[in-house]
Specification:
The complex is a heterotrimer. Helices cover 73% and strands 1% of the residues of chain B. Chain B is an all-alpha fold. Chain B has a two-stranded antiparallel ribbon. Among the domains of chain C are: 59 residues, no CATH class; 85 residues, no CATH class. Classes of the chains: A alpha/beta, B mainly alpha, C alpha/beta. Chain C: One of its GO terms (molecular function) is ATP binding.
Amino acid sequence: MSNTNPLLDVSGLTKHFPIKGGFPIRRTVGAVQAVDGLDFQVAEGESLGLVGESGCGKSTTGRLITRLLEPTGGRVTYRGQDITHANRKQLAPIRSEIQMIFQDPYASLNPRQTVGKIISGPMEINDINPPGGREKRVRELLEIVGLNPEHYNRFPHEFSGGQRQRIGVARALALEPKLIVADEPVSALDVSIQAQVVNLLQKVQRELGIAFVFIAHDLAIVRHFSQRVAVMYLGKIVEIGDREDLYDNPRHPYTRALLSAVPEATVDEEPRERIRLVGDVPSPINPPSGCRFRTRCWKATEKCATEAPPLVQVEGNKPGHLTACHYPETEPTIPAPRLSKDPEAAA
Amino acid sequence: MFRFLVRRLLGALVILLIISAVTFWLFYAIPRDPAMMSCGKNCTPDMLKQVRHNLGIDHPIPVQYWYWLKGIFVGRSYGDFGNCSAPCLGYSFANREPVLGTIMDRLPLTLSLAFGAAVVFLVIGVGAGMIAALKQGKWQDKVASSASLLGSSLQIYFVGYIAMYFLVFKLGILDNPSYTPITQNPVKWVSGLLLPWLVLAIIFTANYTRMSRSQLVEQLSEDYVRTARAKGLSRRNVFLRFAWRGAMGPIVTIFGVDLGTLIGGAIITESVFSLQGVGRLALDAVNKSDLPMVLGVTLLSAGAIVLFNIIVDAVYALIDPRIRLA
Amino acid sequence: MTSTDQQPFLSVKDLRVHFSTEDGIVKAVDGLSFDLVKGQTLGIVGESGSGKSVTNLTILGLHDRDRTAIEGEIVLDGKELLTASEKELERLRGNKMSMIFQDALASLSPYHTIGTQIGETYRKHTGCSKSEARKRAIEMLRRVGIPQPDMRVDDYPHQFSGGMRQRAMIAMALVCDPELLIADEPTTALDVTVQAQIMDLLKDLQQEFGTAIIFITHDLGVIADIADDVLVMYGGRCVERGTKQEVLRDPQHPYTLGLLGSMPSLQGPVDVPLTPIPGSPPSLLNPPSGCRFHPRCAFAEKVAGGLCSKESPVLEVVDGRGAACHLTPEQKRELFADFAGTRHN
């Protein structure tokens, strides 16, 4: 990653969704703090993974950097241009360079359009006429994503789930983007099909040099796909770093707990010791003071409640590996300490 | 719930205010002079001026509207035409009596017509829909579906006259439509309105059959219905306690809208059966350019629709705990 | 079954479930047999359309009877279920056998409180009073780890978090101490940390009550965590079975091998591409001839005479272990070894 000239530079990114209420006149009475002060960069051709559990703000982040949503605060800079509050007109040239792939390949394709029409849509909107015509380009794209170019005139319902996701990829590639934000692109697919699509995305990323922000809840797939990974919890990044550093030497207790909870398809003689997090993720309307993870953390002290830990390179981290914790983990690898299994203990 | 009702009722008042203002203003776009009509054939310019003054239409429109609004709260005097005590919705040029009184005279018939028909089409429509949903694909379903298709393509003036001809004049099964207040003679009330109820219901039933069938079919394929079966509950129990509950919401919604509309006057039905309800009143008022009456009837129907919308939302919240009223 | 000394509590023999649809006959399950003893967990692995969910709805008798043709035998504790009357099945469901589903929000009634829904199962099968049922519901909520159960019992499902809803569903399924619990992807919609909590809960409850569990999932990682035995389904048939150690360490069917190759791992090398299974799952309306996996199989041409596309391989089970594949053991040893080299775990 080059800090000097990143493709995408996000700093202090914040999104609060207002909550309406009150009587007799409705007004804003609070906010869902979906994303609260994110800093990260994405270099050209690099893949950054965003992981976290539902409600951590990873999908909102994806929508903020593609400017499907407007940030409440902070700054999003794409290739040196501030797009935080850019209007439709200013965004138009950038929209073709930043594309998005969605989770649900059924819902995100118009069922009344042919595949050819779907994939050439972005070219029409942006009035782009590739040499040889749009149809030729669409056929090339179909070839790239592993579909039969002859299927140009078919409709989405004639394809399987995995094939539909390939159509989504082809559409995203139509404008030769520099950055693709993929929001859970494989989680709706069968295991055997997931691997096909992951391999396709990997091929696209490498051969076409496209940068990715890869949003997923599956830690193994993120590790497989992204060189750098950021772990989110309740609207904040708790840890970010190169995948080897992060997965082999997680410093944030949450990262460690998350990794230890992933079931692996291996049968060990001795069952892997697991960290069991108790309770539920607190509400983003009224997140805990200080460190947001403290209510479920086995290391939390007074300090964690009063002081929000900054996201920094804590002692022992390699460069680029940042952790937001007052008491970072020191043991290099899993297994880690075991917590009480009684959920009522925390309640 | 209280907050919801207060907020919605305030909103309803604003809506009614806007509707009255728009109706008021639109009326003057019609190139007809109500004073001319009230004044009669041998009208001198002086008399016309006097009539205008008495009717209160010699002021600019906003001032007239203000007087009208004021009349609702403090009443109003119409000179030679007489007085109209609060709440005064205006004075009918054509009928020479206060608007509100006329409407109140006609309302019992319209309410009887609306509620009676509603009971008939709700029971028959939803009943047929339930049977069709339970017997999906079987003959009962096909009969109900065909009947509802036929019903929804019929028109009142067609069915109404045919039914009159056969059931009343030829066969004499039903009484000639008439209105007797329920307080006077309940039996006559029913027998006089039975034909209009049935005819109105034919038109509306179809909608309810289709709606309740599709809603129930959808609910029966919901995951929680499967869970209820997996718990060991019987098919009947699941149908009544689970599927039916979910299907109720949309049915209540269209029922509220239909009832609100009917209370504003079933113009065609009342005309076909020569019943002097609110619908006929509205028709006559429009023909006679009787602004205060038009305004009064418009507000009544708008008020009924707005009110039933609020009721529907409140009932919805009772049916579905996920809906929070605010 | 590994523990042959115990009588099977549930025995499914040559089950065939065929639906008639407008497009033709769907062979959702086509000749499936397995046994399950008390206190054991059978993991059924398969992708969409493998027939795994249909199998379990059929055990409970919740399939659409008008449109389904069923052959075979399902025996629960000596009772034949396929010939049982609806009334008899209603007595068994929720009582002796119960089921938990994937999407707890959709699977719980939005119109009734959690307490009502748990209590009504108990009342149906014990005939107790409303207040007793409520007490039982609170006790069950406490047992599945819902904090403040006496207050939460009157909540509606939408007021619960995803993990708590799944706990409530488990409480509902276990309220009558069933002897067979069928869990259909119960953790798929949950986050990993919550998934871990739920799997712990199921394991604890199983130890306490000796429940037999059928755990349906597409995730071999979950299987490794919770199952004793594994049954891999593909296209309505069982392609491989054995203990989880046997199946995960030494897969004997190319499909199982392919599933393992499709899954990235948290450890090991990062820059090795995944080895996915090409193509898509088969249509059950018009399944492939012979071995249903052969159009996607990397080794089909290694079998002489195009046997894979002509003849359906037989699943021979010895000591609970077997795979339905035409490859010889020698071929597998050789071919799968290469393949295993690229595996991620």
